[in-house]
Amino acid sequence: MSWWIGVAPLLLLLGGGLLIMLADAFAKERAELATTTTVTLALSGAISFYVLLVDPVLAPAPELVTRYLATDKLGAFFDVVICLGAALSTLLAGGYLREHGLERGEFYVLALFSAFGAMVLARAADMATLFIGLETMSLGVYAMIAFRRRSARAAEGAIKYFLLGSFAAAILLFGSALVYAGTGATSFVGIAAAMAGGEASTKLVLLGLLLVVVGLAFKVSAVPFHMWTPDAYEGAPTPATTFMSVAVKSAAFAVFVRLLMTSFGDPLSTSAAAGWPPVLAGLAAVTMVFGNLAALGQSSVKRMLAYSSIAHAGYVLVGLGAAARVPELGVSSVLFYLAAYTVSNALAFGALVYAGSKGKEAVSYADLAGLGRRHPGVGLAMAVGVLSLMGFPPTAGFFGKYYVFNAAVQAGGGWVWLAVLGVLSSAVGAYYYLRVVVLMFMREPAQGAPIAVPMKSGYVLVALVASAVFVMNLGLLPSTVLEMAVAAAQELVGA
Amino acid sequence: MNVALIEKLLPFIVLLPLAGAIMNGLAGRFADKKLVSGVAAGSVLGAFAIALYAFVGLYVAKHDGAEAAAFSADLWRWFDVAIPNGQGGFRTVPIELRFVFDSLSGLMTLVVTGIGSLIHIYALGYMKEDPGFARFFAYLNLFTASMLILVLASSVTFMFVGWEGVGLCSYLLIGFWYENPKYAAAGRKAFVANRVGDFGVLIGMFACVFFAGSFEFSDINAYAGVMGASDLQFPGVASGLTFGNAATFATLFLFLGCTGKSAQVPLYVWLPDAMAGPTPVSALIHAATMVTSGVYLCCRLSPLFLQSDVTMSVIAVVGAVTAFLGATIAITQHEMKKILAYSTVSQLGFMFAGVGVGAFAAGFFHVFTHAFFKACLFLGAGSVMHAVHAHGDADIFKLGGMKRFQPLTRATFLASCFAIAGFPLTSGFFSKDELLVGAANVWLEETALPSSVGAFVFIVLAISAFLTAFYMFRLYFLTFEGSYRSAPDESEDPERGGHAPHDAHAYAAHPHESERSMTLPLVILGFGALVVGFLGMPHWLGLPNWWEHWMEASITNLAVPESESHTPHILAMAVGTLVALGGIGAAWALYFKGSGVAALDEPKKNALTYFLYDKWRVDELYQRTILGPIKWLAIQCGRVDRTFVDTLLTRATSGTAALLGHLLTRLQVGVVHAYGLAIVIGTGVLGWWFLYPHARVDVTPGADSVALSAGPGLGYEYRWDVDGDGAFDVPRQPETLTVAVSAELDQAAIDQTARRLSNVISSVVPWPDDRRALGAPLGPRRYSLTPPAEALEVTRQFLESAQGVTIEGAEPAGELFGDATAAEHRYDAEDHVGFTLVWQDDLRRSHRLELEAGETLLDASVLAFAWQPLRPEDGEADPMADVPPAFVLGDDGALAVRPNGADHRGLSLDEGGSAPLSAGDRFTLGGRPMRIVPRVRARVQVRNAFGNVATETVEFDLDPEEAQAAAPLARNDRAGAAR
Fold it and tell me: Exposed site from A218, B183, B873, B931, fewest CB < 10 Å?
């Protein structure tokens, strides 16, 4: 089979985005845009899913392509995760935007281009591609956050994210410049070769690695580079928040995994004494604890989910750090976790979208009181979503956490303690997740308090059902996706 | 008969009721009542059919001469347990799920399924109107399945599954009408009392496997003789202390379990309360089957029980006391089921008394006959209660004359009364006779048990038998004879109709005979009550005793010498007949003759009557002595839980988490500069990690040297001081040598020496560019040179051998780092920086004590024996007299020990009372094995690409024993790391 299939998802999104932009200028019925966008994303994801599932023999791609874009299974895996997350987000947008009178075609175009950027980022094989993908993805997201033009919060969140994002991008860019200065290479493989050959300047490479790690830690919202997250998540329209929390985060982790394992996977860079694993371990510890504790204090569910997404970044970092010791296990656990997190988070945010209608949005905990009794369907979706985020068996989140912590335990040494810390802090997480369930099913709203009224939207319903099916499927039959993750991990680490 | 077929069918005896329970339990409440009935009764009937088939098979096999015939069916291996093998190790004991159908379990299976079937059929009518119809039958089927597991299990562990299962079902069924708190409490009481007993069974079970090494009944019985002969000793307890023989220990605890399940003193209190359950339950579980499982267990393990006179005597006395106690209480009670319940307690006492005097088969025979007449009595009582619409229980003083309304019930009830009273030629007569014979044998013949026990048991049983006959006929006369005392008063207002009771607690005005599904079982059971006794007719009269013969294969009875005189037999039969007739007569005289008028005035209310009516006030006693204090303790614990756990621990933890969360949220100030600052600070912290190196040393002791390795890192360089002398050795550090040239050497000789020197150096390494290496003048006739580190040694040797040249001094020339992440060194005496004392405690665990420079005093915990301070002999007080033993480490590195009166071996003391020590010495001090190991030091310095340096120093003991122990482990570690 031709190597084109490896980049076809990217091209499909690019073409689809351009077409939709054109269509938007002439079309009257906006809702079809949601369908078209979702179908484009689904198709694009399906191509990569096919590649993962069937594992066809591909002709080797020309060096001109592979120099900049990886056409491997890791890329395909993230194509699927990103397209899935983006498709669920655009489905939610289909209901949300119409309900709240925000129906404008740009959103879908932005989502498509942003997803395209995320996939380029996930497939980046060169510092230049990395930066282009990162910026393509981020620019779309900045605009999506600010989509509610009249909302001050939206503008605040967007500008904060934009400013800090530029700052972080500058740091990352400077880091890659230093790495280039130190190794004379911009491609990931070239960097690794230069380091293995001993001609690299360690000093410059170390500084560059530091700055690149900081830049990427910003994108995955690891503490203390997370501070934009709650504001941006809260200000953005909920579908955009969903997109950010799943697609953007997955893409950032994808390139994180690829860069660290490809360029800095040598024993010296991964040493416990002086390499990046201790740095990631520290970030993971702080992120897990901080994310979970700070989520406790929130009264807005959306903000709580923002902090919870920070905590989840911490769990993924545990797996990523453990990959230094147990590469195959660590990388595959990260991949599985991101897949599980994508569907769980989409479900929770989706239920939040569904629970509110114009003027009667569900935002705070109080809005959710008694919701499960009044509207059992929404309540059930929300409950499954938060239980999966909490890591309750037999949902996707349970196996995600299990594989990540298992990788940490297998890595041994200090990683075991990190796993213990992770389990403890996720026990803290149980409090705020279960609070949602308790409020929905065991409390009644206070007298006179505004009551959230669920919207009526086929799009959101489809998104909810799809995410719920994925959540349960990953929880009950995790093996298919896990095998894909393992195959991708094996290809990456060369096992 | 087809043995293979029987063995294949065997599991279905259990599985059928189990399947019924599952079907009715899960789907019963959605299903039609007829279907539920069919499943419930059908499954038990099916089990009965299989049991009957198997029984016939067994009978034929025995008839064909295979006396010890038994069928068995293996399900699967449940699990393996490891038990001590007596040599410090463990061995595996498998626990099989296996059913065994032999003469004992076969007969019991027949009883359980047969009488169970009848009671199921009866209950179909009895429970017809109950909303919990399906739930009831699910429980009842589950009970049957559990009981069958208990009976058929081949091992004590598997039996325990059934044992607990019947306990659970009993609890569920007693509290079947759980809406009534009193009934629910009765269920709890039964459960708790049984748990006390179950604890005994567990201990007994563990004792059996500990001593006999198997859970199988057959293995335990085969091993019984050894257990009876072996003194009980526990590992870890000083030898010489024994606790009787092992059999006594095991059987006493097993019997504790029996007192719980089979309602014996002191745990019988739950059974009377258990009548709160529906009457069929009382008949099946609390009369016919479950409560007799204690007797069954004793029979199953009869060889083991026979090994312990103590246990046997205890059982006999407990049984007799229970029989008496139950009978006395039953005399005064007013309610049908209460009387029957105490009667059951009493009859169970009879059985255990029989078991206790070694008449296991007789005890089990009584189980068999009792199942018929007591089930019949309970069902009859249920039939009466059903007829008069009494709920829970029926007061016999409000009944009377029931024979007019319920002729069939009355007939069967009367038959069973005769049987339980022991009226000649009824079933109870034969079985009770056998029990009395057993007691009389122990009393009058030469047996292994003390004759006083026999005498006591015989007399108490005789009295109890008299009381039994009395209270049963009191019950019968008051219920069925005379006139109906709840009949509507003729003078009543006719509008209130025939159904209006004439006082608030009276019963239905017009009782009626029960429906066929209830009377049919009554008839069968009543008939059985009359005739099943003929299975065990007295052998001494020349009659065939089928029972004794049948049970021989499974039950071992107490050996009784053959004797020509039939004194015990005659005595037993005479006494048995007399007391039965006497009891019946007394009841007739008191409650029937005066057409019951006199009887209706409750007997004189004296203290004794009250005492008996209040059931000896045992419940109150337990309440005061055991339950009260436990409840008090529970309340206190609850208080602690609320104040300490809930308030302090729970709230403190959650409060801390919430507070932290709140504080962390405050960090989110919302100002974008602050966010940027956070990024900068974060970058700074991460940068610090990369900017400074991190030194770490791993020590791997080898056979004759120690391997040291440092954590590698990007751009790291290392140097090592492996011998702890303060100077770095790896890589070799360059030195600047100051050389003085003697005045005798002329310039030509100097030049020649320099040339030869350069040749020597360049033979090791290429000549470096650095001019200092060659040497630079420091003044007249003094030079300094810095040879490359690799060539330092040859340079020194050359200079020392060269004429007219002397090395004045050497100084470090600078820092040289290398890329050696590992170093290896063999330490010798000069490298030691100190000593460590290694000593072992009683459990052979090693402890370490670092010996400091100066004195290290040992405290008593290090010394095994109490240390005796020295007693100065010459009267002059020795200042060191009460100072404990000490190790003295001098500044010169010399080590000595001063035992100061502590017991020691392997030390040679000098005049000062101390002994010099050196590394590797072994000795005993205060009873503890001790040795001295040297301590050494190593240091690594790491420099990273930024030129920052980190130093790490490790001190470790050179312990060859540890090295040996750790060696395989360390290899694994390394192998693991390599992967």
Answer: B873
